[in-house]
Each structure stands twice: as structure tokens, then as C-alpha cells.
Amino acid sequence: MVKYMGINHLALVTSDMDSTIRFWRDLLHMKLVAGLGHPGYRHYFFSLTEHDMVAFFEWPDVEKLHEKDHGVPVKGPCGFDHVSFEVSADDDLWELKDRIEAAGFWVSEVLDHGFIHSIYTFDPNNIAIEFSAPTKRVDLRRKPRMMDRSPSEVTCEGPEPVEGVWPEVTSPATADDKVVYPGEGEVFDTDENGCF
Q1: What percentage of the chain's residues is helix, strand, coil (to nearest 5)?
Q2: Secondary structure class of 189 (helix, strand, coil)
Q3: Staple 9 to which of 20, 55, 123, 146, CB 3.0 to 4.6 Å?
Q4: Are residues 26 and 57 in the same domain?
Q5: Cα–Cα distances in Å, from 126 out to 32, 48, 57, 67, 191?
Q6: Count of the separate structural domains present in the chain
Q7: Spans of the chain, pLDDT less than 50
Q8: pLDDT of the residue at 132
């Protein structure tokens, strides 16, 4: 069984890496831990936790997103609404709210969603982000709850993975098949360093 450790990185896009660094590193205090790049291309990583990172590709010709409110349905192609970052307590939400407002960005009031308290804002790329603090009264990871008044039959099969839905693996990878091909990250294997 696969053991998930968290989100290694969520890859987002910007046309302005400097303003992105200012927001994510300097305002939100996420450490800039890696950067790859060459003229016309950058891929930078910000540490969120010991296991989780947020990454940005800088593509000079990409256009900033149209601002879209969190959780509001849209028509047409769409694959992303917002990302929520968990903080340890409500005091962290208030600290973030104060810093974000002081920097001139819009940020919502603190909202009670039952299992979390949240604030919402947008980064300089108009990426919708949420910060959430767990509540003591509901722990969905420990005790899942389905409050949908009209859930599908598949939903009602429960929170645990259902075996037999997908075909079983009949030809698992052999030792000879397990080849890792080189990517651009081989530069990290050297002692060379850029500006830090």
C-alpha cells in the first residue's frame, strides 16, 4: 500500500517571479529553498512544512488569472479553485490577516466552517489562497463526516478506498524496469551554488 507523506509540491505559474518571491517568502514567511532556471524559464520552490512545498514556474508570456472568488462556480474549462494552507491555530490566522492587510492585499474576515476557521486572499498572480486553522470540536481526519444531503451511491460506499474497482496489477515493474532517468535537477548534485 502506498504511504502518502503530504504534498511534495503544488506547481503554480507566474509571469513575475520577483513579486511572487516578495509575497510567498517575505510576506507569508515561506522559505525559498530551491531554484532552477535559464533565460526565459525559472522553477522556484518555497517550503511550507518539513514535507510540503509550493513551487512556481515563471513563464514570461503567461497572463495573470482573472480574479475569481473562492468556491464560486464557473463555466468552461477549469481545473483549480483555490489552495488552503493549514496553520496551527486561530492566532496564526489573525497574524496573517494583519500582515496581508498591512501589505495592501484584500483578505477576508475569519470564517467558521465547523471543522476549520479560515481566511481568504489572492497572491500577486490572482491565485486564490486560503489559510485554515483546525477547530477542536471536529477532526475530519480522525472521524470523517459526510454532510451532503444528496450523496451519490459511490460516495456512500464510505471514506476508505474500495478494492476491486480498478484492475489489479498483473505485471509489476521488475528491478530492471526501475530506471530513473536524468532530469534538470541533476544540478543539485554538485557543490555549485547560485546566489545562496
Answers
A1: 15, 25, 60
A2: helix
A3: 55
A4: yes
A5: 20, 19, 15, 5, 36
A6: 2
A7: none
A8: 95
For residue range 46-57, what is the model confidence (pLDDT) as tens digits?
Answer: 999 999 999 999
What is the pLDDT at residue 40? Answer: 83
Query: Could you count the other beta carbons within 10 Å of the beta carbon of residue 58?
Result: 20
pLDDT digits (tens, 9 = 90+) for 95-127: 999 999 999 999 999 999 999 999 999 999 999
CATH number of the domain encompassing residue 6:
3.10.180.10
Alpha-carbon distance 117 to 86, whole Å?
10
Among residues 149, 145, 148, the alpha carbon closest in space to that of 159 is found at 145
Do both 56 and 102 map to the same domain? no
Burial class (CB in 10 A: 0-12, 13-18, 19+), 161: exposed
Whether 166 is covered by a domain: the verdict is: no
CB atoms within 10 A of CB 66: 7
Residue 153 lies in a domain: no
How does pLDDT run across 142-154, given as a tens digit for each residue? 999 998 888 899 9
- End of a domain among 99, 119, 142? 142
